Structures are given as C-alpha cells and as structure tokens.
Amino acid sequence: MSDIIKTEAVVLSKINYGDTSSIVSLYTESDGKLSVIVKGGRSSKSKTGKIIDPLNHLQVIFYKKTSRELQILSDANLISHFVNIKENLDATKYSFAIIELIKTLSPENESNNKLFNGLLKILKMIDEKNEAPAFLFGRFLLFFLSELGYELSINKCVICGKNVTPDQTVGFDFQSGFICSDCFVSHTGFESISPELFELIYCLKANKSTKKFNVDLMDRFNLLLERYLKFHVNDFKGIQSLQIYK
Length: 246
Ligand SMILES: [Zn+2]
Known about the structure:
CATH topology of the largest domain: de novo design (two linked rop proteins)
CATH class of the largest domain: Mainly Alpha
Helix content: 25-40%
Largest sheet: 5 strands, mixed, barrel
Order of helices and strands: EEEHEEHHHHEEHEHHH
Number of domains: 2
Number of helices: 9
CATH superfamily of the largest domain: Recombination protein O, C-terminal domain
Bound molecules: zinc ion
C-alpha cells in the first residue's frame, strides 16, 4: 500500500530517465527532500512534464511508499515559475545555488517547515528584486547554516571572550568563529576580516539594510561562508552553480 500525498514543492533538479520519463528531486512541504519519477514526463503531450523545471513552485500529488527510494508523481500544478529570476543571469545563478545547497545538504524524507518556508521566501524576494541577488543569497546562506547546526556567532571573541567590534581588522577561524582585533594581532593563521566586511556581516545577522555595501564585498563574504561550510561538512565540494555562471 502507498499513501497519496498532496503537498507543495520546489523543484530542485530534473534528469532524463528511460525514453520518456524523468527523475525529479523535490523539496516538499510534507516530506522534505525526495525523488519522484514522472512517467512519460518528456512526452510533448505531458502537461505535468512541462511545468516540472528547477526552481518552479508546484502543488504536487504523489504516491508514497517508505520502502521505495523513488516515489511516483501522479499530478502537478504550477503555483509560480519565478519569471523574473529566469530573465536575469545573476538572479538565476544565486537561485540555482540555493536549490543546489538544499539538494546537496538537506536530509532525505525529513520535513522542515522552517526551511521550506525560508526557501520559498528567498526565491520570492529574489523574484521581486527586493535586494541584489548576491545579498539575498548571503542572507539565505546564514539562515541555512543555522538550520544545519553551524550558526555563525559574531558577538564574542572565541579566544578571549571579549566583544568583537568592527573598528579594526578582526580575525575569523573556520573551526570556531570570530576573533577580536587584539587576539588577531597576537595570534597567526586566521582569516583577516576588514572593518567594512565585519559591518556587513553584522547588518546581515541583525537583518538590517545593506544598501551602502557593494556586491564585491558581499561575494567575498559568500565565498567565506562557502569555505566555512566546506570546513564543517565532509564531502561538501562547494557550490557548483556559482562556478557555472561565473
Ligand atoms: Zn580576543
């Protein structure tokens, strides 16, 4: 027996299977990440096949059997295809980086409403051009890190416990976090963080406006977060989408 599940989902990826079918990775509201087979999904007559594309927000119905690795998609309806994202290269790059992170790092068959809502919210914000995509990506990355259990704390120096303030260059250690300017001077081997970069990180953490910062600085922080993630997650090879669209 299998259950019939009706839920919302974001399409993470799609590959061809056999002559006419596709295998699709979905991030669903009901079950988190899972894979479904879309039988006949590549036929020109398939209404479902046409709307199943990466990034699309769908309502789906599938047959679920926990003993099976692949579930069977029965129907799908389009809720949004984020048309503005797909018309802009930068927005596409960062949105694909977001779904890639979820595909690579979120566990299978484990529902997480906070992550599902966070994913939809950030895609909507990129689509509505609330802020430059690089900044929205950075905001998502910080949120995602804390969902994975690697929250970045910026308040206290990890060596001496003093408050870290942005008036001088401070340090960053991939293992443990931020290092105050005094400890940064007296120790070696840490990443250097300029006062401007630290202020940007502070604004992102505090959910404040980032208008005065430029995209290059934001990208520097995104690279730092990617390295932080690589340091903590075994086998994580970095975010391919950021390379492809460079
Ligand atoms: Zn210190």
